[in-house]
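Annotated sample (chain length 692).
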Amino acid sequence: MSASSTLQTGRPWPLGAHWDGQGVNFAVFSANAQGIDLCLFDDIGAQALSRSALPGHTQDIWHGYLPGAAPGLVYGLRAQGTWQPDDGHRFNPNKLLLDPYAREIVGRFVWSDVHFGGERSKPLRMDTRDNAVEALKARVTHDVFDWGDDHPPCTPLADTVLYELHVKGFTRQHPGVPQAMRGTYAGLASDAAVAHLQTLGVTAVSLLPVHQALDEERLVRMGLRNYWGYNTPGFFCPDPLLAQGQDGHSARNEFRQMVKRLHQAGLEVILDVVFNHSAETDEFGPTIHFRGLDNRSYYRLPLHDPELYENDTGCGNTLDLRHPRVLQLVLDSLRYWVGEMHVDGFRFDLAPVLGRGNHGFDRNAPFFHAVAQDPVLSRVKMIAEPWDIGPGGYQVGHFPAGWLEWNDRFRDTVRSFWLKGSTHCGEFVNRLCASSDVFNQRARTPGETVNFIVAHDGFTLADLVSFSHKHNFGNGEDNRDGHGDNHSWNCGAEGPSEDAEVLALRARLQRCLLTSLLLAQGTPMLCAGDELGHSQAGNNNAYCQDNATSWIDWSRADTTLTAFTAHLLALRRQLLPLANRWYTGTFGVQGRQDISWLRADGRAMHGDDWHNPRHRVIGALIGSPGKAAAPLLLLVNGSAHDVAFTLPAGPRWTALLDSAQPTGRPAWAIDAAAASCPLSQRSVVLLSSAPP
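Output written by the structure step:
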């Protein structure tokens, strides 16, 4: 089809390519280009058919309308402008560009010198070779999907339990998932996968990136790939490699079917999204879309050296949300995933970038205000990874009210308390109570701290108690990558062991860590496989391990640990020991303190008790729990010795949980006349004053 004689002016909205039943409208942003060309290709993107300038230009939007064009049309863009890297401009009309609003990407990116706007040996000199045949292209789409009576679960924050997983790794080796569905969206929606999630008792799956991603050149050369997917060229495209058909149309339909099935099971779907950087990397990277369309607008460039890129992400570049059109791209993408794909929220990778202004992070940045007033986005869950590597990049507790934040202080404190013995009770209690020293001071709610012991980035739970050192040699970086300070402990043997005492201690500590996480105040997040005993053989940075290192091995599942975790989650669901409100220690109408803290001898904690590292035993008398009808008593023994904990006088206490037992169910009962409770070394016990 030739566009030269039929391309009309069209309109500047909406951005991207959209079919109206009669033709396709194209709209592309570039503030600094001198013109944008529309290039049409055959159905597989192998042969160029035509090239025409978009005739319309309205407020930095280049646009045109192609009558008679229909869904399925394959196209790319070329930008006319100056090649002047020392002024931040990298226009190169020899390079075909992907539409940032592409709904489907055609082709597979193969690393080649032809993709670079500047010559690789002399990056400041324009590369004049044409890359149209090899370049990624976009396909015009128009989907019709029957959502039926699908509706979001809208789980209250107080009841939310996040479960972070990788779509492929979760089911790739699951024997209950049909072979053809393993490792796909359909696999996650299978009966076997859904049954596990429901039996476990989580309320939301937090998916590692599903946006279409690229593998970095360095990984490709080593025969590895970016398994986690934090390298996005397509912010509107579910990755087809996670679909059975491995094409764009199949991916979109299969993703929607997955969401619909998970919603039917009462499970929310949260997406991990990467709006802090793009796959184009630094000044030595390829030209895929943003760099060629308008480098100065899309990226943060050093004021005095605009041929370079600000690198607050550690990935070579940083998207510039100070620009309204870049902000619009992010918002449009988020609305698409909520409106068209029915997702229930987002976890933002390196989220401080979203709020970076001219002088660092600003919790009142335009992005946060835009989300707060948006009728679509303001009703879904927003979760921040509250740190990047730029100046002032650590922002835990500083995001706007209503935002949830990953809380690494919880992770490190709880690990240290149980595994290193180097954290005192005062710090541990702060984390147990929703990090009130961080969040309460800023008028946030307890549920806004996302508590976690393990995430995708770091040791698994099993490895946390099996390795004192990281073992990342398979990543090809001589074990230099990944965190070195993990607050881990191998319990006396590095790696796998057949020593019964070592194995028993590891199991006991895993239960202590899980109990601290799932009974704490705040929103808990489990990492998929931790309840199954999943190990990555000590690799704490398995981002490039698309293999059995990362895939969950269901044949080796620790079913006892899984049952223990489900029991914990059932207790949380029934009792919510610590409510989603701040505790003050004040007395209520029934004459009880909402919470009070006790020593092992039954007396109140005071002064040095909080900071003495030798005091490893503490009790919380919860007079005002979240859902329980009667007061609860939570006892923690972080020492290596059994203790008889003196019980508060008055009620008869019934034990509901003892983490020292593999099942979690106490193997003992408290006599009515008993004055103390047996508290095993390295354990947590939960008791209720309600009649059994």
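Annotation: The radius of gyration is 27 Å.
Annotation: The chain has 14 helices and 30 strands.
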